[in-house]
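Sorry to interrupt, but I need a hand with the structure work. It will help me judge whether the discrete encoding reads sensibly. Write everything out right here, beneath this request:
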Amino acid sequence: MTHQHDGGGPGYTAVGGPDEPGGQVLTIPNAISVARLAGVPVFLWLVLGLHSAAGDWWAVGLLIASGVSDWLDGKIARALNQQSRLGQLLDPAADRLYILATVIALAIRAIIPWWLVALLLAREVLMAGVLWLLRRRGWGALQVSFVGKTATLCLLYAFPLLFLGSHVASYAETAKVAGWTMAIWGSALYWCAALLYIVQARRLLAPSPTSRAEAGVPASGESRSG
């Protein structure tokens, strides 16, 4: 069950309260998310262990497979009605781990500057604090917004291109320009999504019933299934 805003403005969903069931666990979408998580150490070994053009191409393939499976598990979850609170946590966790692993690997190989790593890490620390406050007040995680998904998609497109842009090849310059374009847009949208989540969290944590009603959050006992 979720508390959901269905008004005319940009909606948001808080994933359940403390007494709500977690839903299904052993589902196809959750298995796909776990497989995506298992691919993170493989990706790091390909990029930092092999440290070769062939390893980079395999890493790029893994990132593409992760992006496709991210889209696929959402489609399957809706088609088979296998949405679950665990899935709503695993999916963004896999996205964030791939982004974290990739930016650190790129920085270690001096393909991107460390300030970009710090910029993206600062966003994750901020969101961890927001999530902690929500859980302290009995709310679950906020569902990923369209802006957040777009930001993640931009970054996951940017990183493979930046890897290929570091090669000595005819395609390198084009890949580098396209990669940096996506990285800049993705980073900006990533922070934009964080600010939107903060606004949503403030509404959920509003102390007065009037503030909560204005935010579109149902009163206790009036929550709607999402």
Summary: The two ends are 6 Å apart (CA to CA). Strands lie at 3-4, 13-14. The first strand starts at residue 3 and ends at 4. Residues 1-22, 218-226 have pLDDT under 50 and may be disordered.
